[in-house]
Design a protein that fits this description.
Blueprint (H helix, E strand, L loop, with lengths): L1 E4 L2 E4 L5 H13 L7 E2 L3 E5 L9 H19 L17 E9 L5 E4 L9 E6 L5 E2 L2 E3 L4 E3 L6 E5 L6 E3 L2 E3 L2 E8 L8
Antiparallel strand pairs: 1-2, 2-11, 3-4, 4-5, 5-14, 6-12, 7-11, 7-14, 8-13, 9-10, 9-12
């Protein structure tokens, strides 16, 4: 685990190549017509129970492992009484698989949705594309994600980020949204 900037963590080679490849193949088989298209040449597919993304259990467990390592660091700050001692799958409310086709990009944004999401876990599933650099303008940080890496950051407005244009190929990733305060009585 590498802390790239305050609150932003990168886990390199965290997901195995075979797991990433298998998920990408499953994503390609999904009915994207029901997922919708988002401006910027992106397709999204929100995983729901019963969907056919076969490796979601292993994928979820690996994401939770990374998140709990980061939360151990977050707890060192002023959040001790606010962050649950251990996060499990009941805190995740979204698995959003996204593909950025050639020329696809995502302008600066933050991930918090209706004040629910507090931590974003972004898993990168391939690297056979060009472009698609992740930029954090407030932190003056750019990240070139590799297959199997996981990037974790707070979802709030203090962590806006963007994805530059994919110039060749298709970039596949998954945003997992966690609400640290869901199901926590702390």
């Amino acid at each position: 685990m590498i802390e790239l900037a305050e609150g932003i963590f990168l886990f390199e080679n965290f997901l195995s190549p075979s797991l990433c490849d298998s998920i990408v193949e499953d994503i390609k088989k999904q009915d994207w017509r029901n997922a919708g298209k988002i401006p910027g040449l992106r397709d999204i597919y929100d995983y729901k129970d019963g969907d056919k993304v076969s490796e979601i259990k292993e994928f979820s467990e690996r994401n939770l492992e990374a998140l709990n390592q980061v939360l151990a660091i977050y707890r060192r700050f002023d959040y001790d009484d606010k962050i649950p001692p251990l996060i499990d799958k009941s805190f995740a409310f979204l698995y959003r698989f996204t593909s950025y086709r050639d020329s696809g990009e995502f302008p600066p944004h933050f991930d918090s949705v209706q004040k629910k999401q507090s931590i974003s876990v972004i898993s990168y599933l391939n690297e056979d594309y060009e472009g698609g650099v992740v930029n954090y303008p407030k932190q003056n940080l750019s990240v070139i994600p590799k297959r199997g890496s996981v990037l974790i950051h707070p979802s709030s407005f203090t962590y806006p980020h963007s994805s530059s244009k994919v110039t060749k190929g298709t970039k596949y990733l998954c945003l997992t949204a966690f609400d640290l305060f869901l199901n926590y009585k702390g």
